[in-house]
Amino acid sequence: MKIISLCLASLVALSAGAPAKLGGEEALAQVIRDDSIAPVGAIYSTDVETDNGIRISEQGSAGSAGQSNQQGSYSYVAPDGTNVEVSYLCDELGCQYQSPFLPVAPAAPPHVAELLAIAAEQRAAGITFV
């Protein structure tokens, strides 16, 4: 969750006027919308948009295990003009990201299923792994 906050802070710093190469051209991004509600405990809200297409929206809420849950999304325009959007939910079970642009692991080779079946049989027989 701290990584998301760090990414958010970095994007906001970038969009606040720091020179950057965006899409191959030197440009300054200006914040055109910043609707934020300061944190009260774990509850907060941030919505930021820049004139170069970066959008960030995040909400925080109290979690059932005492943590701060985070839910939101960010989007930007890739150098090829594609609009990239990523949404996420971070709670007591970890973080889940959704986007068609995230990499996907290849399928496991067939022998992995056999090894998992052998391990299940061994556990059923009382063999434990340390």
Key attributes of the depicted protein:
43% strand, disordered N terminus, 6-stranded antiparallel beta sheet, alpha+beta, 130 residues, single chain, flat, 2 helices, two-stranded antiparallel ribbon
> What's the number of structural domains?
1
**Strand sequence of the main sheet, in spatial order?**
3-4-5-6-7-8
Overall mean pLDDT: 83
> Which radius of gyration do the C-alpha atoms yield?
21 Å
Helix content: 10-25%
What class do helices, strands and sheet pairing give?
alpha+beta
Percent of residues in β-strands: 35-45%
**Number of separate helices:** 2
- Apparent shape: flat
The count of strands amounts to 8
GO molecular function, one term: structural constituent of cuticle
InterPro entries: Insect_cuticle (IPR000618)
Signal peptide: 1-17
Pfam families: Chitin_bind_4
Would you mind describing this structure in some detail?
The protein is an alpha+beta fold and 130 residues long. It has one domain. A six-stranded antiparallel β-sheet has the order 3-4-5-6-7-8, covered by helices on one side. A hairpin with a 2-residue loop joins strand 7 and strand 8. It is flat and about 65 Å long. It starts with a helix and ends in a 6-residue tail after the last helix. It holds the Pfam family Chitin_bind_4. Keywords: Cuticle, Signal. One of its GO terms (molecular function) is structural constituent of cuticle.
